[in-house]
Design a protein that fits this description.
With about 325 residues, the protein is of the alpha+beta class. It contains 7 helices and 17 strands. The protein has helices spanning about 5-10, 65-70, 70-100, 155-160, 165-190, 190-195, 290-330; strands at about 20-30, 40-45, 45-55, 60, 110-115, 125-130, 135-140, 145-150, 200-210, 210-220, 225-235, 235, 240-245, 245-250, 255-260, 270-275, 285. The strands form 3 sheets. An 8-stranded antiparallel sheet has the order 4-3-2-1-5-6-7-8. Strands 9, 10, 13, 14 and 15 form a 5-stranded antiparallel sheet that branches. β6 and β7 (about 135-140) form a beta hairpin.
């Protein structure tokens, strides 16, 4: 997977029973930086399914379940499509360089096309165009029209929206039919993996910062990706928190960290709330104040010392009584 795809990869935040099929088409103005001039990569949710590059000039499977289920005709058909799209995309890169008045340097164009099958069985499509990482056009599935996000794209979107070009119609048909049908087929291929559930592990910690405390909740080792993590104070959600993206682990599971900066007061009770499809009930992991922990340690130590001294004193008294009884017996 090219660094460019990694840089711009966006995986829609879908629920555990929702799934998306996304294709990222990338083109660069000149070879370099270890990137091919053209590439297209497919993803089912966050797992790569296939890839084509202008270097290899062949559409090939990446996921093992794609290798096992799609026949030679599929790869032959989409290799032919990708070669045609490669020539068109190289022209598009030059066109947008001209529109944005860029004459040299390194520039890149990316098109993201996606369809999503939601929990309730409904579907929705997305299509977005980005130049040097900035969105300049998107396809509005409600109106079935291309919408410019930048002034430079207005003339082009007017052309794309013309009825005689059928770009609007073709895009809408692809999202609602071909993309959705392929998504359902791929879900069936990956059914066993998608039904896998791995329970999350949770660790809470804190950092003291003057009068405030920064609470951290590390959730790791869970599968599938969708998870709900937040800090709670009693029954109230703590709104001012920071969160990382859900990140993959080498073993195929995921991790996330959610942090909150708070000023603990008497009566506060902070807990990390974790909900995941592998759990029958959400987890609520309570945070224990380091000061309370230290106080508990001190109290425990004092109690231990008292018990030790009590035992010693009791031992001395018992020994003394034994000696008195022995002396009395001799008399």
């Amino acid at each position: 997977m090219s660094p460019l795809i990694v840089l711009l990869l966006y995986v829609s935040a879908v629920g555990s029973d929702s799934h998306s099929l996304t294709y990222y088409t990338n083109g660069v103005s000149a070879p370099g930086y270890g990137l091919p001039e053209y590439s297209i990569a497919g993803y089912l949710d966050d797992q790569q399914t296939e890839i084509y590059t202008s270097d290899a000039r062949s559409r090939v499977p990446v996921a093992q379940w794609m290798k096992e289920n799609e026949k030679h005709e599929y790869w032959e058909r989409w290799t032919h499509f990708s070669k045609g799209d490669e020539a068109l995309f190289k022209h598009e890169v030059k066109l947008w360089k001209k529109i944005f008045n860029h004459t040299g340097d390194f520039h890149f164009l990316q098109v993201m096309t996606s369809c999503e099958l939601r929990d309730d069985g409904s579907t929705i499509g997305y299509k977005q165009y980005r130049y040097d990482g900035e969105e300049f056009v998107y396809f509005d599935t409600t109106t079935g029209t291309f919408i410019p996000s930048m002034a430079e794209a207005r003339i082009i979107t007017q052309k794309w929206n013309r009825q005689d070009l059928r770009m609007r119609e073709i895009t809408k048909i692809y999202m609602e039919n071909e993309c959705t049908e392929r998504l359902k087929r791929f879900i069936e291929y990956r059914k066993e993996d998608l039904e896998r559930r791995v329970r999350p592990q949770v660790k809470v910690s804190s950092q003291e910062k003057g009068d405030t405390m920064k609470l951290h909740c590390q959730v790791y080792g869970f599968y599938p990706r969708a998870v709900d993590v937040k800090w709670m104070n009693g029954e109230d959600e703590v709104h001012s928190y920071e969160t990382t993206h859900v990140l993959p682990n080498p073993d195929g599971t995921y991790q996330i960290r959610v942090s909150a900066e708070v000023t603990p007061k008497e009566g506060d009770s902070y807990s990390c709330y974790v909900d995941h499809s592998s759990l029958e009930e959400p987890l609520l992991i309570k945070w224990e104040s380091p000061r309370a922990f230290l106080l508990a340690v001190i109290i425990s130590a004092v109690v231990s010392i008292i018990l030790i001294f009590t035992s010693i004193i009791a031992g001395v008294i018992i020994n003394k009584k034994k000696k008195n009884y022995t002396a009395a017996g001799r008399e």
